[in-house]
Amino acid sequence: MLYDPKFLVPLMDQLDDHYKALRTQIGHLETAADKLINVAWEDNESATSFKDAHTRWEGEFSDTATQLENLRDAVDRALGNAQHADKKVYDSFAGM
C-alpha cells in the first residue's frame, strides 16, 4: 500500500520537526535583526539595507514555513482519507 501509516506517520513527524526548527530559526533571526537594527546600527544606511534584505528574507521563508505546514497537513488528510475509504470497503464486505 502506498499510504501505509508506518511510512506516512514518520513522514508527518519529520515535517513537523522541520517546521518547528524553521520557526525556531526565524525567531532567532528576528531577535538578532531587532538588536542589529535598533542597537548596533541605529538609524543609518547599513541598518536600512539590512532591514530591506531582512524583509525580503522574511517573505520568502514565512512562505516556506507555510508550505511545509500545508504539506504536512495534506499528507495527514491523505492518510485519513485512505484509511476511511479502506474502512468503508471493509464494512461493506463485513455484512456479506
Overview of the molecule:
It is a single chain. By secondary structure, this protein is mainly α. It is built from two helices and no strands. It has helices at 5-40, 45-94. Helix 1 (5-40) packs antiparallel against helix 2. The longest helix has 50 residues, at 45-94. The radius of gyration is 22 Å and the shape is rod-shaped. The chain starts with a helix and ends with a helix. The mean pLDDT is 84.
Describe this structure in a few short sentences:
By secondary structure, this protein is mainly alpha-helical.
Keywords:
96 residues, mainly alpha
Question: What is the overall pLDDT average?
Answer: 84
Structural class by secondary-structure content: mainly alpha
Q: How far apart lie the N and C ends?
A: 25 Å
The whole-angstrom Rg is 22 Å
Major beta-sheet overview: none
H and E string: HH
Helix content: over 70%
Q: Tell me what portion of residues adopts beta-strand conformation.
A: under 5%
Task: Please specify the SSE layout and strand pairing.
Blueprint: H1 5-40, H2 45-94
Helix pairs in contact: 1-2
